[in-house]
Amino acid sequence: MLAARPPPVARLRISCPFSHARAAHPIPSSISATVGQSGLRNVTTALTSRASLRSFSGKAPYGRESDGHRYGDEGHGCRDGSGSLLGVVGSGAHDIVGAYPASSCCRCYYSTAGRHALSSFNLARLRRKVPMLAAAATISDSPSPRHQVIQVNQTQVRGKKTRTTVKLEDLPQGMVEPPSAASETSSSSAQKQPQSQSQKQKPQPLPPLELEEEPSYPVVVLQARRNMQKFDNCVLLTRVGGFYELYFEQAEEYGPLLNIKVAQKKTNAGPVSMAGFPFYQLDRFLKILVQDLNRHVAIAEEFPNDVSGKVKSGGLMHTRRVTRIVTPGTLIDENFMDPYANNYVMAIHLYHDSPVSALSDDTESRQAGQHTTSRPPFDETGTVTPAVGAAATAATTAAPTRVGLAWLDLSTGHFFTQTTTLASLSSVLSRVSPREIVLDKALEPAYRDRDQQDAHPLFTILQEASCLLTYTPAPPREEAETEGEGKSGTGLREQLAEWEPYLESEIPEATADQFTDVEVQAGSLLLHYVRDRLQGLSMKLQPPVRYETSSVMMIDKNSMRSLEIKQTLRDGVFKGSLLHAIRRTVTQSGARLLTQWLIGAPSTSLEVINFRQELVARFINDEDLRDAIITLLRRSHDSQRLVQKFALNRGDADDLLRLANTIRATEDIVNLLSSAVKKSSSDSGEGESQTDCLAQLISRISLDQPLKLAKKIRDAIDEEGLNAQHEIEDNEAGEMIALAQEIVKTEGTPEDSNLLPKAASSVTPPKTAKSKSSTKPQSLRDHYDPEKEFFIMKPGASTALTRLHAELAQLKRDKETLTESLRTRFNAPSLTLRWSPGLGHICHVKGKDARLPPKSVDDPSLEGSGTPAGEQPRTLTTSRTTRSFHHPQWTSLGEALDAVRTQIRTEESRVFALLRGRVVKNLVKLRRNALVLDELDITTSFAKLATEQGWVRPTLDNGTRTVIIGGRHPTVEGGLAEQGRTFQKNDCLIGGGTAVTHLVPPPSGLEDDVDTAKLTSPPNARNPQPSRVWLITGPNMAGKSTFLRQNALITILAQVGCYVPADYAHLGIVDAIYSRVGSADNLYQDQSTFMVEMLETAAILRQATPRSFVIMDEVGRGTTPEDGTAVAFAALHHLVTVNRCRALFATHFHDIVELVARHGLRVEDGGPDGAVDMYCTDVEEDGRGGFVYVHKLRKGVNRQSHALKVARLAGLPEQAIRVAQQILQESPKQEQHMTQDQEDTTKSETTAVVG
């Protein structure tokens, strides 16, 4: 209680907001006098030119609500110029609370009289701080320390009410600046004012207010709520018993998407939305959330509580914490993963001092970085030469923005890095196809502005790639480390050393020296992100492999799409693609490696290509060896992902058995290869056997330690017990599916049947007519019955297991003895000893034995039976036909059985952990062996493919020549074969250097098809210079695009190491394939069809080198004929004179032919630029309206596109056809083209034609 208050006196109200801008004048900005107990009058005296009023809480300016108080009503806190709190004042009913240090609180405080007191120190400080106030008022110290007020010396007279109006714009707005670290005097502040203004720090927000107490939810719900707040960007799945559950708004949002019911859980804090599903359906719903909806999912598992944990949780047996965050790019062993494709997560790092500074570059520098090439100009031999022409000069002088990339597949442990440019980033993304891309958290604000005109080009590229973006804070790095070093320095070595705990072996010194700074930063960001997703789960990755662009053929994004390597262009499906046409692998890991060879890394190394071709040739010649290896490969499993499971501490007993089977299959394959090598040695001599390709494969396989591991696994794992356990699980699943199917048939709709698992359609309900109970699922008692459990380890797996199994066998015999004894004692033949979750160990009787309770030991009829005194059976449940009761002997024996079973489980876990540790110790050897098996899988599939399709082995060299005789399209040929049609072969002879006849001999068996006289012509013949570019004309639907694509695909197959669909092929190594085929627009990016075409053409002309192979079809089609002709010829001219590469150029602009002749680009014109030859397709007509396309190329020009024939085939109305014919007949160019056609045909008949 407060002391008696003195008579009402006028009290001074201090409204003293702080202002660092006036640090030299620590005088309050305004003084308000409040007179009377009810605050009836406010008189404001302005001490400065401008009022600076701001709430101490930092949440609202003067006159607005702040932290639950309204200025002038209940309370307001004020600071002086040095940042100290002068006081908290309120209405007239409240006293002024004195000057407290600014650090003592973080919100407005107010108090009634005597709530707080001004200390002597604060009173003196207040007088010193407010000299004008000291002159006008007396701060009196009350005898009571709890009642101190400021009294005004002059008598205040109540006057009329006044109102002061302040405009909103006059009030200071924005963030409240923090107080200085220490209060300084006014004089020191005045001296340091210029310096403080120049070095003024950026305002920072005040510390957040303390959160209110959490609602009184149940502990399980409260744990889920906290996890949702901690992992706010994830969908939280909380394990509760046999279910995974969602709560609150996540249940409402994702319940309908997952097609599960959303219920309301009643709690003391109100209803809580919740939804759940059985734990064994986790993979099903993870697929929907992660793969279909691209969500991050945090999985919170149950862990037993210790004693203190049970007390804190109110007696709960379990606590729940997040053990893993599942994202689209960090899948490990989920059942919904694509087994034939890698699952990559990629990190991208820009070359800038800080990620944010990258976004402040001007538009001109961005365009320069985006439109430059990373390939210098080359001459025809591949050596670097000075740039030719203005375009080449601009390409070499521009400075591209370097980008560091790092990507890994967590399911296999593969880890890659690469340095590229923004211009090449889209092609890399198309090649790698990452499921998730990780960026620095600092880039997230800039991504929100990606739609603005000056947005960074990185986001445009990522948006076109349709990749899932994730932002994560960058790992801390040394300040001394800068990205200007270019290559690995001391700082980079330290960062690489931080990778070692996550790698199975150290990074070789030679490889470590090659890493660039941007690669290391990207790799660190990636590992930091993956480690956070795994939530402490250990991982072992393979050492990072640097992706060297110089050792592989580059295939850009547009070429990948137009050549239909991964999927078809029209429908985007796998069937019909090149990969679908050649894949004959029998293992999942072999299929992934084939995809990597074909899409990611067609080799440019002759040594690598020839080695693969030697293996294919060996398996073609030895068909028995090939079939035996394929059979053994079918017995193996996906070793890459199996081993990685154990590296992530996840594998189970089935995985151990699969690994042991794979090791045994590897041993059998090695024995087969060794026998083949010995046979080859005896037939060909010892010298050839030493260099045999099979011997090289054998030398890369290490089996000593893996075979010991396989033996230990087979000696430890009880395969029969595992099979029995799986059979029970399958039966349970089948019964549940059958029950669901039966319910849907009787009560559901056809739409409901679509919601059932796919296996439901193939499951037939059990055929029993005795009772309906046969289709019911297993009871809870049967599910937890210890007698139905199977052990995964053999009794001889360890000494302890041998002893424990002996004890268990003895206890089971004791149980049988006790059962017979109790049956005799209670005269109940139906008595059985059971266990139930609710009753424990019970004796169960049924039938007539259940009608009477069991006789007690006091019954005279049981005297002398040897029953211990005091043993009294206790009845638990009764019914008309059954009775259950406890018996101490069975309870004691049952507890002993449970204890032994628990010890066996514990020992099995220990043995399993030892086996898993052995697998991790053999990690490197097992992965190397798996890679050899994958290569065998690919090469045997290539041999099988070549045998089935009649493909031939190509010859490759370091020249710049392409000679293909009788080439065919690998996918179109297969499609025609299904229709019973044949494919028209075509030849392609282009490239620089010497004539083809001096490079290769005529192919055997083709003397009838090839003009051998022309092939053997001397160098001084009429046409000694070969053509580097073919200009192809002809009608629509006559196969021009097919011819262009088939030669590009043959080149890719040859450098993969595969045989090719041709009668003969001799190819010079190609460093890049570029394709400009088809038409499409990009309206979202405001790009028309012609704009997209020009972008693709520009990329080709900037990047192609003399070793590149280019195909261009219908360049310039999206504009007027005149402009299109000009653009098309300009592109052709650039390919001939600047890029000087091998190219196939198809067009319907026939005026290009005259332009080529006028500029001296034809082969017969000679000179350094004479490199263009003319070829065409044709149409044969029967004179009665019938026609047939001639897909065979001939030399010459065909100026008739025959567009109306295609229009008639497409079903164009006949009236429209007649109008088009009339317009064509009236065209003045029609007769000119027909005359020119005849001249070209005459010339072609006198010119040598190959094929």
Automatic annotation (TrEMBL):
Residues 138-211, 358-384, 748-782, 850-884, 1226-1251 are annotated as: Disordered. Residues 139-157, 366-375 have a biased composition (Polar residues). PROSITE patterns: DNA_MISMATCH_REPAIR_2. Residues 1228-1243 have a biased composition (Basic and acidic residues). Keywords: ATP-binding, DNA damage, DNA repair, DNA-binding, Nucleotide-binding. One of its GO terms (cellular component) is nucleus. It holds the Pfam family MutS_III. Residues 180-203, 761-778 have a biased composition (Low complexity). Belongs to the DNA mismatch repair MutS family. Component of the post-replicative DNA mismatch repair system (MMR). This is DNA mismatch repair protein.
